[in-house]
Amino acid sequence: MRNTRRVAGGAVVLGAIVIAACFGDAKLSTSRQAVIETDVDPVFVGSATIGGSATTTITLRPQDATSDDTITSIIKSCGSDFELIPANAGVGERVYCSAGFGGSGYGEGACVPVTYSFDVAFHPQGAGAASCALTVNYVPTGGGPAATRKITLNATGIAATYALSVTPPQIQFSDHPVGSTSSSTTVTIKNIGATAMTVNGSNSNGSNFSVASTGGSVFASQALAVGAQASYAVSCTPQTLGPITGALTFSSMAGTHSVQLGCNGIGASSLTISPVPANFASTLVGRAPTDVTVTITNNGAPTTLAVSLAASNPQLTFAAGGNPNGIGLGSGSSTTARLQFAATTEHPAGSLGTLTVGYTGGAPRNITINGTALVGELGWAPAEVDFGPVCIGATASLPVTVYASAAGSVDVTSVTGAAAPFNVTRTPGTLQGNHGNTLDFIATVNPTAPGELTDSFTLNTNLPTVPTRSIPLKALVLPSGLTPTPDLVHFGPSRVGMTTAAKTINLSNCGTTPINITAVRIDGASAAEFALVSPENPLMPLQQMETVKYLVVMSPRQNGTKAAQLVIEYDGGTVVADLDGNGFGGDGGDLVDRGTYYACNAGHGSPVSLAPLALALLVLRRRRLRRA
């Protein structure tokens, strides 16, 4: 069935490959160039190094001369690695066709597009493929039902050749009696670069600070594969009274990274306090971690406690009933201070404040309270799992990669949804922050009836507020026989003498036997203004359940409405896909054949000649190789 519904912003125009005109200089004041772009949607935003960014511009154009729509919103369905510029892009903007700016010279039916453009930026926090779905919501300007236009964004994060992360950047071990040992704090190093390397560790003050290996790590010389990490337990045993400092240094091809260490040696105390320092479990923003309990034991004469909290982060407070201030402790008695961390905003690993415990007859003790709250978000690629045309009775599959797009690690606890004929593998797992690893799923569809199928599957997670993320599934199931999809292709308005981005028409053999394609041509009133640019040789056998892609461009030679057909003949009959578009900006006349590159190669009612398009196809091949 042909889709005749009007769509605002019918084409997303990208920067594209440029090739020269075929014969001499163009007649217009600007040289005419042919533009080829294989993927109008999805939009490839670009590749960027971690910590950098890539930006592209998306232009929404009217679909045809009758289009007149107003954008109500553009919604981004992905994490913080993609950004709309401005954040409220499109609100209230009108996209429509004007009859012309200079009077009747534009010709009957000419569409001079009034467009809207906005930017999309990609800020990778980790290496790997990333994807995002944009939904353009709009209404007809003159009134009517709301509609949507979906755009998929793809991008790639690139790791530096050598890069190392070290957390936390500093540790304050608080007050400890000389000769006593603090609780340990974990230091983690991770290879976030693109190359394996060895990291050499050193301790500037080994007499007061100790480093213990965990999980087989080696502090002096640790080999790290790409994405690998190692952890160390660091503690303080002060040998003297007063402030003590030191540093751990990690040297590698990624440079030198340090962790600053601090501790304070005090005299004998009647109180035993544990843990010191006290650490909240790392959490996601929006999910408060389990309360931290600090145990205070009196080993001396009966005393009264004076307890206070100096919070450098206002989200650190005493839990209800958790402040033991004023409590009397007999010899050998214990009590607890209980603290809570709201974690409503991001807080990198580090100090939240200091708990001070004073007592009668002794010096007060300071205990550092540490915490971490990181933003958690999921990303997945592709943003929409679109199988495209699928023959009835066939099985199609696509990989889906899920990753943590922000700094926080996310647990995918289960996968639900995707009813037959769709199916998705359902292996849960933990995703490390900043694209530290991926969970890979396989989505399949095995349709039994023709038509458009839509569904979704759901990732259930430990993300606060909205713990589920739904990934759309889509397939166009074709009946038995030979079917072009789509069978109506809108090229929209294009300036006379210029060439549009290429549009794809899929031809699928859903019959019971192989066929032979014997002729491919463009017919119709505007045949000379369209051209087939790929495949290089369109005459070929097509096996059962096989699909071939045809790329077609429009290069208007005069103003006004364009209509043509891509006609494909095979040994069992003929199939047709309709083409339409609009030319604007010409001088009212007709361009001669030498005016544009593609005009040299398309003849009305005749088979498409592809030999002069070698340069275009060479560029196309190179783009494909780069993408591979």
Structure description:
With 628 residues, the protein is an all-beta fold. It has 4 domains: 40-158, Sandwich (Immunoglobulin-like); 164-374, Immunoglobulin-like; 393-478, Immunoglobulin-like, CATH 2.60.40.10; 482-627, Immunoglobulins (Immunoglobulin-like). A 6-stranded mixed β-sheet has the order 4-12-11-6-8-9, with no helix packed on it. Strands 23, 24, 26, 28, 30 and 31 form a 6-stranded mixed β-sheet that branches. A hairpin with a 2-residue loop joins strand 20 (242-252) and strand 21 (255-266). The longest helix has 14 residues, at 614-627. It starts with 10 loop residues before the first strand and ends with a helix.
Please describe the topology of this protein.
Blueprint: E1 11-13, E2 17-19, E3 34-36, E4 43-49, E5 54-61, E6 68-77, E7 82-85, E8 94-98, E9 112-114, E10 116-122, E11 128-140, E12 147-158, E13 164-167, E14 170-177, E15 185-191, E16 197-203, E17 209-214, E18 222-224, E19 229-236, E20 242-252, E21 255-266, E22 271-274, E23 278-279, E24 283-284, E25 292-298, E26 303-311, E27 316-318, E28 328-329, E29 334-341, E30 347-359, E31 362-374, E32 378-381, E33 385-391, E34 396-404, E35 410-417, E36 422-424, E37 429-431, E38 439-445, E39 451-461, E40 468-478, E41 482-485, E42 488-495, E43 503-509, E44 515-523, E45 530-534, E46 541-542, E47 547-554, E48 560-570, E49 573-584, H1 614-627
Parallel strand pairs: 4-12, 14-21, 23-31, 24-31, 33-40, 42-49
Antiparallel strand pairs: 1-5, 2-3, 5-10, 6-8, 6-11, 7-10, 8-9, 11-12, 13-15, 15-19, 16-18, 16-20, 17-19, 20-21, 22-25, 25-29, 26-28, 26-30, 27-29, 30-31, 32-34, 34-38, 35-37, 35-39, 36-38, 39-40, 41-43, 43-47, 44-46, 44-48, 45-47, 48-49
